[in-house]
Amino acid sequence: MVGAVVSGKIADRLGRRMQLYIYSQVSWLLDAGRLLIGYGIGVLSYVVPVYIAEISPQNLRGAFTTVNQLMICVGVSVMWLIGTFFPWRTLALIGIIPCLLQVIGLFFIPESPRWLAKIGMWEDCESALHRLRGKNVKIFEEAAEIRDYTKTLHQLSETRVFDLFQPTYAKSLIVGVGLMVLQQLGGVNAIAFYVDSIFISAGFSSTIGSIAMVIVQVPFTLLGVLLMDISGRRPLLMVSAAGTCLGCFLTGISFLLQDLQVNNWFSPILALVGVLVFSGSFSLGMGGIPWVIMSEIFPINIKGSAGSLVTVVNWFGSWVVSYAFNFLMKWSSEGTFFMFASICCSTVLFVAKLVPETKGRTLEEIQASMNPLISN
């Protein structure tokens, strides 16, 4: 959460690439290491999707940004499986390897052309576009659109967090914050962090259940990447949220049957099916699409402040749900999952009513439509 608070301002001051470099290295001393990892993740969770969105062609932006979620899913799954064979100290040392690879790789990538335009480095902006699109690709139209929109935004003052709460940015803020709140309150981290306990409480093998969940997540995340720029963001989000609702409902039914001592042989299987349906559905859209939309809807003059706020809300929601989950389960296991199911159902309605479709549109077009007072 602390990393998320400063993520936007650091990205605006140092650029996207420099921020990725600084927070890719972490200490392995336990307390300091956990603090630094958490801080670094808070920063990177904002700047990575923003950077990807700002460098990607509009027809592939959704897929490219969602690949970030796919790689997170693959990384977590691989480390989960490695962790079954190695102690946590070895696991922590292994984690240094991808950090170092990222540091090396960042020397070979260009800065975000939109950030370069924001600080007035027009030649560097065009140079970055040439590196990203290819030397022989005509980038005049894209560069002109970035330049015109950035000049319009330069007429506005740089915003602070409190300046976000004005009518100009209301729709963007509601959509960005709302998606993050619903993503976390739907129970994803409670299920991810306590999956062993959930399966044990339901009477199912925690090892088999956990491995099955990992196996389900990766292909569904990959499917989401493939569908992102075909089906669009909104349909995928609604299908994903409906699936997480069903998964939570089935898990809640499992615990209800257990409490009523009805079909004791069936309730563990139902818990497994519920968790797998939830994990697969979440990986399909709700895991990555809120970050995609967050990276698309905020204009460059508020992206730092708004991105920090949205990211803080996300991690705060994660903390609240993770902290409260054990207490909720003691209160009522089935009630906890029925509550998560109702929040997931609310997500479907929220997306249907408020979230715009951003597929196939430039960032400038999206931001102008979401913040009409700026475009005028």
UniProtKB/TrEMBL annotation:
Gene3D superfamilies listed in its UniProt record: MFS general substrate transporter like domains
GO annotation, cellular component aspect: membrane
GO biological process: one example: transmembrane transport
Membrane topology: Multi-pass membrane protein
Domain Major facilitator superfamily (MFS) profile positions: 1-359
Compartment(s) where it occurs, according to its Swiss-Prot or TrEMBL record: Membrane
Keyword Membrane attributed: yes
Protein name: Putative major facilitator, sugar transporter-like, Major facilitator superfamily domain protein
Glycoprotein among keywords: no
Origin superkingdom: Eukaryota
Entry keywords, A to Z: Membrane, Sugar transport, Transmembrane, Transmembrane helix, Transport
Protein family: Belongs to the major facilitator superfamily. Sugar transporter (TC 2.A.1.1) family. Belongs to the major facilitator superfamily. Phosphate:H(+) symporter (TC 2.A.1.9) family.
Location (main, coarse): membrane
Record InterPro entries: MFS_dom, MFS_ERD6/Tret1-like, MFS_sugar_transport-like, MFS_trans_sf, MFS_Trehalose_Transporter, Sugar/inositol_transpt, Sugar_transporter_CS
Entry's transmembrane regions: 36-53, 60-82, 88-109, 173-195, 207-228, 235-257, 269-294, 306-325, 337-355
Annotated NCBIfam families: SP
Entry's Gene Ontology molecular function annotations: sugar transmembrane transporter activity; transmembrane transporter activity
